[in-house]
Amino acid sequence: MALAPLVEPADELTVDEVRRYSRHLIIPDVGMAGQKRLKNAKVLVIGAGGLGSPALLYLAAAGVGTLGIIDFDTVDESNLQRQVIHGQSDIGKSKALSAKESVAEINPYVNVVLHEERLDVDNVLQVFADYDLILDGTDNFATRYLVNDAAVILGKPYVWGSIYRFEGQVSVFWAQEGPQYRDLYPEPPPPGMVPSCAEGGVLGVLCASIGSVMVNEAIKLITGIGDPLIGRLLVFDALEMRWTELKIRRDPHGEPPTALLEDYEAFCGVLSDEAADAAADSTISVTTLSSWLKEREEGTRDFVLVDVREPNEYEINKIPGSVLIPKGEFLAGNALSQLPQDKQVVLQCKSGARSAEVLAILKSAGLEDSVHVGGGVVAWVNQIDPSQPSY
Amino acid sequence: MTIRLNGSDHVLPGPTTVLTLVDRLDLGRTDLAVAVDGAVVPRSEWADHTIPDGADVDVVTAVQGG
Q1: Secondary structure of residue A109 in the 3-state scheme
Q2: CATH classification number, B2-61, choose in 3.40.5.10, 3.40.50.2000, 3.40.30.10, 3.10.20.30
Q3: Residue of A250, A355, A380, A382 to mutate when probing chain B, most B C-beta within 10 A
Q4: Which of B31, B58, B60 lies closest to A187 in CB terms?
Q5: Is A234 in the B-facing interface, judged by CB distances under 8 Å?
Q6: Which of A34, A71, A250, B52 could be A30's S-S partner, Cβ–Cβ 3.0 to 4.6 Å?
Q7: Sheet holding A303-307, edge to edge
Q8: Rhodanese domain: which residues (chain A) (predicted)?
Q9: Mean pLDDT for each consecutive 10-residue tract of chain A (391 residues)?
């Protein structure tokens, strides 16, 4: 079911513009009115990278009048395998500037606004305010949750796409018309569990498959045609060459964000390199922990479970059989002496970020068999003991 | 009972909720969406949503790349 067009039409198209966009104009569903809406549209693309490259090229060619580009990065040679808006001579240049130059070559009638900064809690609401529609092509979970929350707060729709290796996912999130990102993925992954494209790789052309769907949906929303990808997730498998469509609905018990979080990197448990290395092969799930605790009761396994959160957090919920030693005690060097030297140490916090940091400390102190619990007490409450409150 | 899990047959010991299935799979991930017969089950309904015999279940994990 089509929604009302997102953008009012511009007053007119020039003769040059009519010539340029003639293949759109003769499609009855787009026509002069639709093309004028595109001309009047202000679209922000977050990240001039893998998804941002095809998105910006096609949005520009389609005649979107104002394109915002936010990116703080510079073009690296390793980007050119997929970030087709940049070229060999752009290496070392600001991605935002390089993208602007490509857009100008494709369509000189597009007004490009550059935001050469990192999107964060301090600027996101102000940056988004000027745009009708946002395309999220960023490369990390912290920014993805930030984009979602800001879009929900401002009541703006955004087209979301993400990619990894041979898999792509794409949807449109608009809280007032359907579900938002947190209805699909209420929790970020456990810290250190999900590799980025820089760590795990990505098939270059996958960016075009997903990026082109993103532009397709942007054009539909702006002009008010077709059935928007709201409440639907498309999952693309490039190896099987299969698109799977899954319906998404609002979580009736989910609470949409009404304010930004203070720190999205902390929410997503962004880890230091040391913590990520320590956690790489020493992370257990809450399910494993649950069976280990049973074995400990039965006397067939011995370990000490250390909760490294703060005392006030420990009062809200806890994993039975844990002892509390806050992370600060480990950083200060006071905690190691409190640990039994002859038992394996299992660490746990709220989400798995702090416990991974402490894990790095224990491993460097020689406690090599220590492990930490991915997802922490949040996962414990969700998966093992839903009777406990979460926070 | 048998379900289709991400396109392959998967045997369950008996009536299973989405929460129990996720637990059994022990993927070590919290960034999961689970769809039963083409519809994502909201997280707050995992504990109460029993998977019907023969259901098509998709377990999708979040990806972050762009």
Answers
A1: coil
A2: 3.10.20.30
A3: A382
A4: B31
A5: no
A6: A34
A7: A283-284, A371-373, A344-348, A303-307, A322-324
A8: 299-389
A9: 94 98 97 98 98 98 98 96 98 98 98 97 98 96 96 98 97 97 92 70 96 98 98 98 98 93 85 84 93 96 96 93 94 89 93 91 93 93 89 80
